[in-house]
Amino acid sequence: MTRPTYIFAGGGTGGHLYPGLAVAEELVGLQTEAQVVFACSNRAIDRQILSPLPYAMIPQPVAPMPRGLRGWGRFVRAYLASARLAGDLLRDLQPVAVLGLGGFAAGPVVLRAARLGVRTGLLNPDAVPGKANRLLARKVDAVFTQFEQTAQAFPLAVRSTVRWTGCPIRRGLAEGDPAAAREFFGLRSDRRTLLVFGGSLLAESLSLALEALAADLSPLAEAWQVLHISGSPLAGRIEQSLRSAGLEVRTLVYCDRMDLAYAAADLVLSRCGAVTVAELMAVDRPAVLMPYPYHKDQHQRLNAQAMERAGAARVVMDAKDPRANARRLAQAMAPLMADPAALEAMRRAAGTAGRRDAASVVARFLAGIEG
Asked: Which CATH architecture fits 5-169+356-367?
């Protein structure tokens, strides 16, 4: 008997892959014999995330669309090579369904699958769809969004295919034990923990703001410690600044146990990509969110609004200057860190925001099990 096969197309960032992994877990739960194949990008982050997992991984040569006049030749060659690969994959694997994970790496496989009449879905966790998703939405059978208002950002002709489900979240993310998590990271058990993360590139100004914020956090050093996840080459310098201010600090270049990082945290300082916002709500963690300021559509700011409206987050706009950011963050964070009751109220509010069954809904659609 042939195993039912599903192709998940996309990658290039953890924000694209992690919701797909959540759906893959649900699919295997629904159909233990199911085979999930990730047609990902050829970026190192995809290999880092997918290599330890029990899914086939097929990197595509596809590249992002260039923003200027240069690079179009490379883009076209890479796209055509990926389109040929997509055709081979679909012919050889005969998938039950294809799920686009968003972004440039989803395009070749999703478009070819739709052309062949294969059941197709598309994940769109961000509040505002990007160019690739706006194009793909015209071709797929269903678009799954994290935010209800996102439907209005798609053309009227495709809104009937848009389903508000929330963002798929990995199993077990909210099951970490705080005491075990602190022990895992070498943190103290008698102090609250500020978790700071956001990626090595998009969060560099956030990390620099943390360095400038050290003096403001110094009065809280008896009660708080910092878990800083950053691939920035400046991470060591930032750690030293925090230690000089009297704070206990644990710095990681990369963390593959975000379940434990969330469990250890009493407050989170981070960017607000769609998956980060979904995970914070799923694990009931209060947050101070600093949207990445260089996106033209400002989708991170819009992503954060769900948590802010629910009372689970404070949003601090990035002034693109570390000292200005430190002043803004100090105004938002210091009162919270000194007020356990306020943190608890935010934690409860986070638990009321968002939807938590998205992975199951999407998996059932792919498997042809509706309702």
From this structure: 3-Layer(aba) Sandwich (3.40)
